[in-house]
Design goal:
Elements lengths: L18 H4 L7 E4 L5 E8 L7 E5 L13 H7 L2 E5 L17 H11 L5 E6 L3 H10 L5 E7 L5 H7 L2 H5 L4 H18 L7 H11 L3 H5 L11 H11 L5 H10 L15 E6 L7 H10 L5 E4 L6 H16 L5
Parallel strand pairs: 3-4, 3-5, 5-6, 6-7, 7-8
Antiparallel strand pairs: 1-2, 2-4
Length: 327
Amino acid sequence: MGGIFSSPDTPPPSSPPDPTKLDLRPEERKSLDLPDGRTLGYATYGSTNPSDPAIFLFHGMPGCRLVGRSWNKLCKDIGARLITIDRPGNGLSTLAARKLTQWSDDVLSLADHLKIEHFSIVGGSAGGPFALACARFIPEERLRGTTVVCGIAPIEALLDTTPYLSWRLGGFTSWAVKLAARYIILPRLLAPYRDLNPSRLKRAMEDQCQTPEEKEFLTPDPHRETDLDDAVAGLLETFKQGNGGFVLDGSITSSDWGFDLRDVDGGRVWLWHGDQDAVAPVATARWMNERLGGGRLRVLEGGTHSTIWKHHEKEIFERSAKARNDG
């Protein structure tokens, strides 16, 4: 396969990927046949006690159900069941033209299959819109609470919080931003993952680690549950069907969501965001908070798109596990 890894001079990674990390565990190979013939891939982590609270976790982009590896031990320790789901075209889930407003149907189908009556949701980054869609369309007697961490906001939020965009683009702002997202931003995000050779993929990810916090991830840490080899395994699984799922995710999140945040029961939603987030600017989180009725946003000083998880993961999952219908 060609692309950015085609040069024979590309150096190897600092160490070969660990084969045991690339192998999937039985609980990571699960799937559900949906009524319309599609397959929904999912994995289970954390507690195996059916009486413990259940949390559905929605991955970012690119991503898949293996994201749950990062919080397997944590959820065991706090007594929470963690269920991660592949969105269409990612991992084991069938690629199909689905809308954001239809995602809640798949989540409810899986909850029914697993005999989970009540559950909470956590959505990170590009998983945020899907979490908010569930907050809008899943009945409150099923959904105890929704937590969005560094969530991607609607295109309207970017336009409203960046006034000069409209002036520069001559009134074609929304149309132009959506085109840029699909044909410029998405291909750039996809570029490092064109070659799914594990060693070259790991090397590419090492080269992407530029900040001190990112480079810290390259150093072995006995207190950290996952490492770069788990990330390699996740990307291999994400793109096993090709890049269709990634493109679909990007198209869905950068298009009209199909619902108004003002119609979401904001009393059951919590937003976590870093004031130094360069991927999803905090101004867009404030925009969403306002439309949810206010008082739902926690801004973490110095937090970035990734460090929030590092410093606040236990609090995030504990709060989600304890969420109740009354907020």
